[in-house]
Amino acid sequence: MTIQEQTDWLRTQLNGCFDVVYHTFVAGPNVPCALVYLRGMVDLQTIQDDVLHALQALPQSDATLFYSQLFDRKQLPISEYEAIPLEDGVTAILQSHVLLLVDGEQRVIDLPLASYEKRSVSEPPNESAVRGPREAFIENAQVNLSLVRRRLKTPEFKSEAMIIGTKTQTNVYMLYLQGVSKQSLVDEVRRRLTSIEIDGLLGSSVVEEFFDDSPFSPFPQIQYTERPDVVAGSLLEGRVAVIVDGTPIVLLAPVTLFSLLQSSEDYYQRYVAATWIRWIRYLFILISLLLPSTYIAVTTFHPEMIPTKLLITIAASREVVPFPALIEAFIMEISFEALREAAVRIPKPIGQAVSIIGALIIGTAAVQAGIVSAAMVIIVALTGIASFIIPHFDLGLSLRLLRFPIMVLAGMFGLFGITCGMLLIYIHLVNLRSFDTPYLNPVTPLVFGDLKDTLIRAPWWLMRSRPSAYANDRKRLQRNERPWVHMQEENQD
Q: Residue 387 in contact with residue 402, Cβ under 8 Å?
């Protein structure tokens, strides 16, 4: 095919794409060629300085010899390029590659010279740590992959690439440690990824919803993170990560409830402080879920459980409130949720100030107007603070949603209703699974060895094995922990 025929065919396929550039030139003495690429999506500096200069310096004039020099002698200063059918050239162009057309040839040359504007690596905006690394993923999948690769310098670290989305052609990468992750887990993640048939994949949240074993459960069944060190640590435990191009969020599977309650900060602090903070976190999770409903149940059905002086204070504050405790709690909780959502939508410089000032003004005005009691304002404020302690946003959102039906049960049946609601949640959690991993592992079923990194955070030298839920090779420490301690004891004897 001549250059004109090739470019005409490409123009027909890419009709209406104004950002496609067709640059014709003569390579060597008299070989007509053309470069086709997307404007703003390729490395123009490399094209001008390296590709065009190398092509025009070729001495041979015959197209066959021209091809021979390109592939046998590797004349182009590019690490990887290949000859592909013209029909596949459209996909290559849309993948931000440069297409080299040669007069008289049926095949075209695919030059991987993608380059476009991207955000630089910065601190994680949501998962900050005092002592940990200050790097976060960006929207470029290649950069994200390199951030993980830099932490796992082993040939066992595998990355499989695939393309999902008939229209978006989104690059997706599956990461795992061969020999550490269970092969059945790797195969299942690969099967679910390849079974996704959708026209557009614009974010990792789409993959997350396809991954859910129980799509109607309020609890998240996939963990996500914006920190490369969290991904590296999860891979070392035997989990599988999924990177989706165009989003700074990486998915981790499988997940348990306790892995969602852990923070990266736990592993950068001393184990005593990390364990204490973990216990505080567990306590405030219960407060976030049960404090408003407990207040409703006790003040409505079980006032005898409240100390007399405190009961008199609560009764005096509620004397002018025209609503029962349940309606009062609903008013304050919905108002607090509205303020929280407004703080997210308002521009960042004023969002935090609006949420704090708005809460103070609304709370004070509501108490003075007699709409709610001061005790209810305190209860809702403590509940809101407790919800902020939950490390995983989606888990916190799930608990916030479950808070309302438990409040209704408390308003109707008292503490008995709260007990029934918690039993229903527990039954649901026991039956919930993430990639065939029990959601309450290692508590239900009980695995004593894995409790060292669940209820507590044991010292590193005591965590000899990886979690049994998703690790194939469970051996973590390669030799006896802290051998110098035993040597010192022998010397003292």
A: no
